[in-house]
Amino acid sequence: MLIGVLQAHKSCVSVIAWQVLSAGSSKSSLLLATGCSDGSVKIWLGNIEGLNQCASGEVPFALVAVVATDLSSPVSSISLAIPAQSQHEVSLAIGRVSGSLEIWIWNASSNKIEIFSAWHAHDQVVTGLQWAMDGYCLFSCSQDNSARCWISHENHLEEIFMHSNFPELRESADLSELSDRCYGLTLAPGEQMIAVVRSLDLNLLNQMYQVRTQKAVVEFIWIGGQFVGIPLDRSIDICSSQSTDLSSSNLMWWGSNILWSLKKYENVEKRLVIWDVVAVLQELKKSAPAFLETLVHSWVSVLLSGDPQCVSIDAPSRSMHDMMPYVSTRKLHLLNIMCRKVMVSIHTHHGPGAENGNEETTDFWSTLLVRSETELRERLVGFTFAAVLKRTAYLFNGTSTENCWFPVGVAQMDSWVTMNYDGQVHDQLQSIRSKIKDLGSRIDGYSDVESCPYCSSPVHFESPDVAICGERHTLPRCRASMILCSVVQPLWHCVCCGGTVNKLLPESFFTMQASTMHDEGSLDLSAASVPLCPFCGILLQRSMPAFLLSTSPA
């Protein structure tokens, strides 16, 4: 759908870049930077809400800054960065056809733009620019077949050498020796890796086979094991008995950059996409398992308590469990991902518990995962019960519930609370559940009667994740509502926990703080718009019923 047209330049617009300014505030704005073939660059400020409400042809963008320079070389690449510690200062990187780079700083408060640094960075066209590490680091690539890293130092940027330092990557081929140009680069979500697009030098390939099929490649370069602008976290402990091909310096930088990245994901405004962080940790479990154990345990201690000294590896599970009710839902999602994708599998395949028969550490992470998911399930049940009470109040007061999220599975959740009532659920949940019991069948859709879609035999509630009918058919339950999932309609699937979701949750569940988990007065019941897993917080994948994928459906 075309929203509108912005007449930005008199000549061809060669490149654009976007950034959100003042993310998380009630009046977030959208920054748009446009580069032109005549060498000019402009910064525009737009209202995000206005983009959804603007009339056809009227785009709510205002020109706020113009880069004034004598250079006429066309702009080939630009990148914007808004440092978290200084939201009113915007860093603008400009790459030109001549190979030069410029850094400009635009002050949103004074509406002034000044040049920070300019230098000749490449011999040919700059084809890619990407800020990283909160604006401390800038990556660039060019048609001269080079990809470079620049670190901010005083009033200029200094180049540092990029290298992947994982042991199994040291023997891999250097793609820069086989390629002739770089066409672009991008940064992984967790900022532990960059990807560079390279075209291959056809003269260096096998003329019979490779030339016909291999035109370009994407090179992935790990960057987290070195200094990339973020100060080193010297609190990280390196085991003296650590046996690894990585140096202590590499481990320190990996640990420091990983902890910095995970800290950023505690902000609910940042979408939970951390595949590169998980990949790094899974590699460390092979090369440095003792270091990984220490690193993740230290992170969990800070995550749950804010004090890494208050939880000991010797007897932590009970105390950590006691802290979980006071932890945000986003932190529990991070904890679940780390436990499930890294720590539980580490001992299953690679860790000392698997080799020496010591199951104590494995049990710790498994128990922590179970308790974290139990806490999330209680919040989910409490959230649903609170939504029922709020909708009931709306109906009583004559308030419209149009476009509001409609809770389902109340009877099944009531059964789950009954199964875990004896001291295993919070007092708050027991209290709100008593209000639900008073409403009973007056709740819309309240029914605990379920039947098997294959044989129509009754299905009794025994587990929130799976059900088995009288004829022994195994049926998945929705992870968000505990009702039986449809066998004929498309469902949502989580690639992390493997759960199936039939009913999406509103985003207000994923931004919950523990102190307001059952406060129906402040509950936001806006309809669900983003498919997120209630136990991992990541984007769900669409899955189709098996019979729809069959070549010969019965």
Automatic annotation (TrEMBL):
The keyword Cell cycle does not apply. It comes from the Eukaryota. The keyword Nucleotide-binding does not apply. One of its GO terms (molecular function) is histone acetyltransferase activity. SUPFAM superfamilies: WD40 repeat-like. It holds the Pfam family WD40. Keywords: WD repeat. WD repeats lie at residues 119-150. GO terms for biological process: transcription initiation at RNA polymerase III promoter. Gene3D superfamilies: YVTN repeat-like/Quinoprotein amine dehydrogenase. Residues 443-537 form the Transcription factor IIIC putative zinc-finger domain. One of its GO terms (cellular component) is transcription factor TFIIIC complex. This is Transducin/WD40 repeat-like superfamily protein.
